[in-house]
UniProtKB/TrEMBL annotation:
Pfam families, A to Z: DUF7104
Name this protein carries in UniProt: Uncharacterized protein
Origin: domain of life: Eukaryota
Source organism: Aspergillus oryzae
Length: 1084
């Protein structure tokens, strides 16, 4: 491939930069030039073109590259280059690391399949690199003879070497480099002559000679080494490679394969050159044991890794696993090799059975899952875990998308609806969310209970692959067959539930396809699909992409779609996204339900063309000052304000609010337009200036605009300096503009330093800038240290500049939420830490809580006692860290009961109660489960805990229904506990509606004028499914205060005030009678 990228990278170039063609969206055409005299001028022209392109593409001057990016920077080679090539590679690195834009362009090319690159390259003129680089090959060979490894040869032999190598038709540097190495190994002149006489005529022939020279007994071992080297899923070290083929010593790896095929860097081993893989991997490799097809290699690696794991039938500890490096590699990467197969070859049915065994054999699964997790980013010590604490096999198999290993555990009793951890997805929802549709359909066909609530959740989150859309229809058909998609409120029905259709609207990934499938079923006479006002509301407010959804409804709706005049009142307000509103305004402007809030939202979020369409259809719209305020902050620029300004109401003017809104916008042009209309002079207030400085997108350009305009003035104040010190958009330049344009001397105050310390990106440079504005040291107080507490680098700089910075109890408490900051503080001289308060804070399970706890244990600052265990039991993470550090921590049965109760309170904050209880149960062997604990779990809405406790105590003579009614009718119970108990009951029964009869039995005493917080319960009706019967309204009118009645009416705007409702209101002893009757009168 002389005219490909591979050929380019095969030569020692002094400079290689990508020439970027704008119309191809990145680097699609690459050219290079050698660093010879004849090409110097051309190379300079290429560099000039590149520099011009970089100025357009790059947004930053430098970039810290990720591991993935460094891999790409290795080009297509997985090996170090020769000395000459290394110099060229360094040039490439210099180019890539200097530009984020070029990196993105390079990645767009290099990350694509080689065939795709080759096909695309055909549309560009080819470059004959043989002609250009023949001279460079000669330069390389002569350099080796003159001062390199062949310099000791006599003159005649050197001439023979030059004539032989340079007369060859092969022009690749890799070939020349290998021939030089071959000559280096010759011990006599005769050997050199023989080597030159038998020199391979191509790079491929050279590699074949190297393979042929491997001893017969070692060739199968060499194959076992070379296959993973060609298809490694991660960097490999010598010990891992040696272990994979059972070599007694890692040095034998290089002895067998030689430096011509492999190279090392420390302990890491890789292919010596990308061309090694090109030679070894061949679809025509029959009869050559060391060459193989890609399919054969992946088959081999899948079997090899799975076999390695499945034979580990003895439970391993950390020390035993450490001496099995290939087991670690296999545990982390076997699934990648299996996934690469696409399907399991029928001839390899044994592989499928072994994959299943990785999940069904408890010891095998326990071993490899702990090894794999120990290499993942986790705060847990995997080797201290019990089997019951590891991620269930069904969850892991679901995440990997493996149908068989999901099917088997379910057949053996695993519950695909059970979440492994609190706040995590159950396997069925996880499969839906990740588009594992074969698994979703498999589970839906199992004998498990699928509630209507679960069906709604699945419809709302399921993803699909465009290439297998039929799989999504299979999932929907499984739900239809179960009867959970249909509207069963009035008995058996073939109508898709309105709620199901609405949930489909909210699915941004698959909503369009789901609705299309439903409508296809309708057209085939299988179901009916309601397109009601509520469905349209979801389409407008929640669907994405809304434009396509409305177009689909418009095209396929049989009766046209209905737009409710109360559409946005029904939703409780306006949506965050206005795409649907804009689409509706363009399609049905005369029908769009208008309000002041909606018009203001459109002025901010919609384009001017949409607003113009609306204004022409609705000439009664008044452009108020509030709408101007909104338009001044339009997301798309100045056009909206230009449209609305001439249409403003009399008296609407440019106020501070309008200017402030413009200062927050994404366009400096908006602010300039307003300033032009305020001639001859403008005094900007501190409020407006704060908005300009705080505008991270274009605040700097706005500042330059007003400073360049002699009509505009403002006063530089301490709050403005503080704002500039805290901004993340060019703070140094912003500070410089303010300081240089201040009429008075700027003094650095505690508030300014505190603002700089809190700058999450530029704190160090801002602090450095401020330190040079005054001769005196910066005022570093407790407040300043607390301002820097979120940024470890800033904290480090503060301590360097002010070694005596105060480390108070408040600072220690602030730092204990962050691992790096806590480490910094502990390394400094400090007094007695407020350890009890710190532990209490850490028990709230902050992001770094577990790491900080590990740190405190390492420094021997924590003492394990019953009080510590009791405090950390408030959250699973900290408790688990404690048990990992001290497996013998004193957890007593009494503490188990106490923490069990505390766990419920904790769940109210973090949702981890079940994990806490299970963690204690695993360590103590049991948790006392009594009726009181069942009742408490119900009162806190602990659905998973109640289910778990019933599983543990099937002998308990109680039911969820009886517990619920006991709690519901208990006058001493708060309304939140009643609601929580109902949530448990709803999850258990699958019935999501709060019935009229249930509300009838809610505690109420007219005699004592006590409704037991029924008002609060009514306030959350908008988030619940509550019966629509008139009797519900009567109960509310009879028992609630005015705010609760108003809230109820807000969520039921269509309610008709009947005589029975008035009679119910007349019985009300809670609310002010006159005010209540007046409210009802207004609704008649």
């Amino acid at each position: 491939m002389y005219h490909s990228i591979l050929a380019i990278s095969d030569h020692p170039l002094q400079q290689l930069k990508g020439k970027i063609e704008e119309e191809r969206l990145g680097a699609e055409k690459w050219a290079d030039f050698t660093n010879t005299l004849r090409n110097r001028e051309a190379a300079q022209d290429a560099l000039n073109l590149l520099d011009k392109s970089l100025n357009i593409l790059k947004n930053v001057n430098s970039k810290v590259l990720s591991d993935e990016e460094y891999k790409v920077l290795g080009w297509v080679s997985t090996a170090p280059f020769s000395d000459a090539q290394t110099r060229a590679q360094e040039s490439r690195l210099a180019v890539f690391s200097g530009s984020q834009g070029l990196w993105a362009a390079g990645k767009s090319v290099l990350c694509r399949p080689e065939q795709d690159i080759s096909q695309t390259m055909k549309s560009f003129p080819s470059i004959n690199l043989e002609q250009r680089l023949a001279k460079d090959v000669e330069t390389f060979v002569r350099a080796q003879l003159d001062g390199g490894s062949l310099r000791e040869l006599d003159a005649d032999t050197k001439v023979l070497v030059i004539d032989t190598l340079l007369l060859s038709r092969e022009r690749r540097f890799r070939w020349a480099d290998l021939q030089v190495k071959r000559l280096e190994e010759c011990r006599t002149d005769d050997h050199i002559k023989e080597a030159l006489r038998t020199i391979p005529d191509s790079l491929e022939a050279t590699y074949q000679t190297i393979i042929d020279n491997i001893a017969e007994r070692d060739r199968s071992i060499a194959r076992g080494i070379l296959i993973p080297m060609c298809f490694s899923a991660a960097p490999l070290d010598l010990q891992t490679v040696a272990d994979s083929v059972s070599l007694r010593s890692s040095r034998h790896v290089m002895d067998i394969c030689t430096t011509s095929l492999l190279s090392t860097s420390g302990e890491e081993v890789r292919l010596a050159h990308f061309s090694v893989k090109e030679f070894l991997v061949s679809e025509d490799a029959v009869g050559n044991i060391c060459r193989f097809s890609e399919r054969a290699a992946k088959d081999h690696l899948a079997k090899k890794t799975v076999d390695c794991i499945s034979c580990q039938t003895e439970e391993l500890n950390q020390e035993m696993a450490a001496i099995k490096p290939f087991l670690a590699y296999a545990s982390c990467h076997w699934q990648a090799y299996v996934a690469a197969l696409v399907d399991i070859n029928p001839q390899n049915a044994d592989l499928g059975r072994k994959i299943d065994s990785l999940f069904t054999e408890p010891t095998v699964y326990f071993n490899w899952s702990r090894i794999a997790d120990s290499y993942a980013i986790t705060n847990d010590n995997q080797w201290n875990k019990l089997r019951s604490e590891c991620k269930p096999a069904i969850d892991r198999a679901t995440e990997m998308g493996l149908v068989g290993p999901v099917d088997t555990p379910v057949n053996q009793g695993a519950d695909p609806l059970q979440s492994w951890k609190a706040m995590s997805w159950c396997p069925l929802k996880r499969a839906a969310l990740e588009g594992r549709l074969k698994i979703v359909e498999l589970l839906l066909r199992k004998n498990i209970t699928i509630s209507t609530e679960l069906a709604k959740a699945l419809i709302g989150l399921v993803k699909h692959d465009v290439e297998v859309e039929h799989a999504l229809e299979g999932v929907l058909k499984a739900l239809l067959d179960r009867g959970v998609l249909q509207d069963t409120a009035r008995g058996p029905s073939e109508s898709i539930s309105e709620h199901i259709v609405s949930y489909a609207m909210t699915n941004r990934y698959s909503g369009l396809l789901i609705l299309n499938i439903f409508l296809d079923w309708r057209d085939r006479g299988l179901v009916s699909v309601p397109i009601t006002g509520d469905v349209m509301r979801c389409a407008v407010v929640f669907s994405s992409p809304a434009e396509e959804m409305l177009e689909l409804l418009s095209r396929r709706s049989q009766e046209g779609f209905y737009i409710s005049p109360t559409m946005f009142i029904d939703t409780g307000g306006l949506p965050m996204l206005f795409d649907g509103i804009a689409a509706l305004a363009r399609r049905r402007p005369a029908k769009l339900p208008l309000s002041d809030a909606l018009l203001e939202g459109m002025a901010i979020k919609c384009d001017s063309a949409t607003m113009d369409t609306l204004l022409q259809a609705r000439p009664d719209i008044k452009v108020t000052e509030k709408i101007l305020v909104a338009a001044a902050q339009n997301n798309l620029g100045v056009d909206m304000l230009k449209l609305l300004w001439p249409l403003r109401e009399p008296g609407a003017s440019i106020t501070e609010d309008v200017l402030t809104s413009a200062a927050k916008s994404r366009s400096p042009i908006i602010l300039k337009l307003l300033i032009d209309k305020l001639q001859p002079s403008v005094q900007l207030t501190e409020t407006v200036m704060k908005s300009i400085i705080g505008n991270w997108e274009c605040g700097l350009s706005m500042m330059k605009t007003i400073l360049d305009d002699p009509r505009v003035t403002f006063e530089v104040s301490e709050p403005l300096i503080s704002m500039a010190a805290s901004t993340t958009q060019a703070p140094l330049e912003m500070l410089d503009l303010l300081v240089n344009n201040s009429e008075t001397e700027v003094h650095i105050t505690e508030d300014i330093v505190c603002a700089a310390a809190g700058n999450i990106i530029y704190s160090s440079s801002v602090l450095e800038y401020l330190s040079h504005l005054e001769a005196r040291p910066l005022p570093v107080t407790e407040k300043v240290v607390m301002g820097a507490i979120r940024n470890p680098k800033t904290l480090e700089i503060l301590f360097e500049k002010c070694p005596n910075a105060p480390i108070t109890d408040r600072v220690s408490l602030g730092a204990c939420s962050y691992a790096d900051q806590m480490r910094l503080l502990l390394d400094k001289p400090h007094g007695v830490l407020p350890i009890e308060k710190m532990v209490e804070k850490l028990s709230n399970n902050y992001l770094d809580s577990c790491v900080v706890l590990d740190l405190l244990f390492e420094r021997n600052i924590l003492t394990v006692n019953e009080q510590l265990v009791e405090t950390l039991a408030a959250s699973y993470g900290p408790l688990n860290t404690l048990l990992n550090q001290r497996p013998d921590a004193p957890i007593t049965a009494a503490q188990g009961r106490q923490n069990h109760g505390g766990g419920y309170d904790c769940h109210h904050k973090s949702g981890e109660c079940l994990e806490i209880i299970q963690g204690i149960s695993h360590r103590t062997g049991s948790v006392p489960i009594t009726e009181r604990l069942f009742r408490e779990a119900m009162s806190y809405g602990q659905v998973d805990v109640v289910k778990w406790m019933f599983d543990q105590r099937p002998d308990m003579n109680i039911t969820i229904e009886s517990l619920f009614h006991e709690i519901w009718q208990d006058g001493s119970i708060e309304w939140q506990s009643r609601l929580a108990a109902w949530m448990v009951l709803s999850s258990h029964t699958g019935k999501s509606e709060i019935s009229t009869s249930l509300l009838e039995t809610y505690q109420y005493s007219a005699e004592h004028k006590e409704n037991y917080d029924f008002d609060e319960f009514v306030h959350v009706f908008g988030d619940l499914e509550v019966s629509e019967s008139e009797r519900v309204a009567e109960i509310v009118f009879e028992r609630c205060n005015i705010p609760a009645v108003e809230d109820f009416l807000k969520h039921r705007p269509k309610i008709i005030v009947t005589d029975s409702l008035v009679q119910a209101a007349e019985k009300n002893v809670i609310a002010n009678r006159d005010a209540l009757m007046s409210l009802l009168e207004k609704r008649k």
